[in-house]
Amino acid sequence: MSADPAFEQARADFLAGLACQQAQDYPQAERHYLASLQRLPGRPSTLVNLAATQLQLGRPARALASADAALASEPGSPDALLHRGSALAQLGRAAEALAAFEALAHRVPDHPLAWSHQGSLLRELGRTDEARAAFQQALRCGADPELHRYYLAGVGAQEAPPAPPRGYVEQLFDGYAGDFDEHLVGQLGYCAHTGLVDRVSACLGPTQAQSALDLGCGTGLCGPLLRPLARRLTGLDLSARMLARSRERGVYDALVQADAAEFLAGSPDPFDLVVAADVLIYIGDPGPLFAALRHAMPHGLLALTVEVCEDAPAGACWRLLPSLRYAHVPARLLALARGCGLAPLKVERAPVRHDQGRPVDGLYLVLQRMAG
Fold this sequence. Notes:
Blueprint: H1 5-22, H2 26-39, H3 44-56, H4 60-73, H5 78-90, H6 94-107, H7 112-124, H8 128-140, H9 145-154, H10 166-176, H11 180-187, H12 192-204, E1 209-215, H13 223-226, E2 230-237, H14 240-249, E3 254-257, H15 260-266, E4 273-276, H16 287-296, E5 301-308, E6 318-320, E7 326-328, H17 330-339, E8 342-355, E9 358-369
Parallel strand pairs: 1-2, 1-4, 2-3, 4-5, 5-7
Antiparallel strand pairs: 5-9, 6-7, 8-9
């Protein structure tokens, strides 16, 4: 008896989709999975992989539809529940997402992601005690210890590290790259980039920097604003997807994927202008960054923004907030900068964005490298 040609083609498309998914070619993977489903509709394994792919592509509404179709064919599928919860979370439907992860934990009690995602949603909903318990359960189930210690620090259950895990920042911004500009500027009223560059321009006057670094360039929001101020402009970020968005703008002479302090400490070429808009909210202790600038910026200006807090533990200059962002104490931050050879030229307090309709208190700093 000969094989069914439609089944064989559906299988071939599924395997091709799987290969593309593993190679992180998500657009092609989605095309193969959709082709497979045309020939063999409702197949749970294909729908589950399609949902995962669509999440990677930043298409949560499509991922939700695929996950729901998988659950219709295979009720209680753990992978489908996981993707359903993730899609709902990305769509801002927190209560429904929480219910999906609770259902997953009920079905697979030792599933670390079921508990980890519950913890993140509970933290965002302000249910701190429940979030703490969920993160602790995730750890007991084998979740990443470094990452979950960071999560626990955000809900006050552990001492905060001086910086988040590198993988957390990369994953956060890789997932955020697709609608970053619209969300940050349109929904959160983000203004730190324009406010900071305006202050840099005022300090530079008619002169132009020889070589500028847009530190944590993201999608390149600062790039077009900085381009007239520098003869050469480099962008640096941890997120490959953010850098891909920056590349589309066509304003940078070079783009680099690297950790900021590591790059600056080993940079073969000096910069005379370094701009870090909204970077220190993901770096608690700026000491290593300031120290690395002694090598990479022997003269010139460092411009940065921070969120402000009035006090920090144990005399530090930073505090980890429940939002998992770091805030800094202005006086202590300035003292640390001076100790690293950076003197303040401009220090201005003003909002950097809005959160739930309220302005977020920020500090705009332009610091000059001191001689010697």
